[in-house]
Specification:
The protein is built from 21 helices and no strands. By secondary structure, the chain is mostly helical. The chain has a single domain, classed as Growth Hormone, Chain: A.
């Protein structure tokens, strides 16, 4: 093993690295927040529940190609470089967002509308599969060892900022625009803005250079088939990453995405109020994630991951019970803090689990499998569970089960001392 040497990170490089995460979560959050609007525009209006379920099915389809994309972009990231791969992914992500903004509706072209929406969501998922993994690897490899969690958590803070941006602008338009105008044109402006953010990120990324760690990796090894090497030597770690991220995937897509629809459809909050609550939670998380990242760098990865896992298990039922009993949104604040603990720690933990030569492939595959299987289906699964059991508390049980699975990995598979060095080969 080799102790890493790091280059000094410039603010521009950090912003350039996380811009893809901003647009990813901006677009994904918009889709979830605007699910009732999308259902109205892209599916028949006769059965509102079926239209909503189909809308969430299309959302889940956006994750179908993520495992394939993780293999494709993981190969590029380990072979041609982290920085070059990140330029490709953000360009394709931005273009797909712009195309979604310009799509005709079901009333205009019939079934071609949901088909086109599904294809664009799948393209977006393919591109994004290499985006988050690449940015967290780039930042982690470039960071000083004692600030690795703090720097790498900027990827998740970029995601949180994207969610804040989406909820804030969507809430503003929902308040300022008449409902019929918002449902017809307002949602298009929101997706168009996401594409423009992506193009701005591409401009920023034109100047970023490979990390010193990656340069040292290329000096020591030049794997022709990093995926085969990964499957031969590190497949167990891929499984561990997948299982570790189950609570992260459920937390992200339930608490920071599906929650708006949950509050609006099942607890009868107005859409504007639900979006305002979601935006506030994400703004709070921006600061709390940073705090937990500092704690992780000082006291270790397992400590903060224990806080997250046990927090979900202990707090999910009382938080959602009191939310439903009182209607007070502040009842969910403890879960936002728990969510922030795992968001602060999972990026650096994943990167530190793999040697450099196969790091992009390993992180990308493990991460995207978990996001596809658990994250992408979370809105659909929760809607189905609530409808099937006629019980709005199913969302709390879902979070608990996911946390128990990840807790087993934290307890039995993560080393007690973690994060001291990054292996190069």
């Amino acid at each position: 093993m080799n102790q890493l040497t790091t280059s000094t990170l410039k603010t521009r490089s950090i912003i350039a690295s996380i811009t893809g995460n901003i647009i990813e979560w901006y677009d994904f959050s918009l889709y979830l927040y605007l699910a009732p609007v999308i259902a109205h525009n892209f599916f028949p209006k006769e059965n509102k529940l079926m239209s909503l379920l189909l809308t969430f099915l299309v959302f889940a389809m956006g994750f179908v190609l993520r495992p394939l994309g993780s293999i494709l972009f993981g190969h590029f990231g380990d072979s041609i470089g982290r920085a070059r791969t990140l330029k490709i992914t953000i360009l394709l992500t931005a273009l797909s967002a712009i195309c979604i903004a310009l799509l005709p509706t079901y009333q205009t072209i019939g079934m071609l509308a949901p088909i086109a929406l599904t294809l664009l969501r799948m393209l977006q998922g393919l591109c994004i599969s290499g985006e988050f993994a690449g940015s967290m690897i780039y930042l982690t490899e470039s960071a000083p060892s004692k600030k690795r969690a703090l720097i790498s958590c900027m990827t998740n803070n970029g995601s949180n900022f994207g969610i804040v941006l989406a909820t804030s602008i969507a809430a503003l338009l929902a308040v300022c625009m008449p409902v019929n105008i918002f449902n017809t044109y307002g949602w298009r402006l929101l997706f168009l803005l996401g594409g423009l953010i992506g193009l701005f990120g591409l401009w920023l990324r034109n100047d970023i250079q490979e990390s010193d760690v990656f340069k040292k990796i290329k000096e020591k090894t030049n794997l022709k088939a990093p995926l085969l090497t990964l499957m031969r030597n590190q497949k167990r770690n891929v499984l561990y990453v997948f299982l570790l991220l189950i609570m992260s995937a459920s937390g992200c897509y339930v608490l920071m995405g599906y929650l708006t629809t949950y509050l609006h459809v099942y607890l009868h909050f107005t859409m504007a109020k639900a979006l305002q609550i979601q935006a506030l939670f994400n703004m709070i998380s921006l600061f709390v994630v940073t705090m937990f990242a500092i704690i992780s760098d000082r006291y270790g990865r397992r400590f903060t991951l224990y806080i997250a896992a046990f927090g979900y298990i202990i707090l999910s039922i009382p938080c959602f019970y009191y939310l439903q009993s009182t209607g007070l949104w502040i009842c969910l604040l403890p879960l936002v803090i728990v969510y922030s603990a795992e968001q602060a720690t999972t990026p650096v933990t994943m990167v530190e689990m793999f040697p450099g030569a196969t790091r992009y492939s390993g992180v990308s595959i493990g991460y995207n499998l978990s996001m596809a299987i658990v994250g992408g289906t979370a809105p659909l699964v929760n809607t189905w569970l609530i409808s099937t059991f006629n019980n709005t508390m199913m969302i709390a049980y879902y979070l608990m089960v996911c946390a128990v699975i990840s807790l087993m990995i934290v307890m039995f598979k993560l080393p007690k001392v973690f994060g001291q060095r990054l292996e190069l080969t």
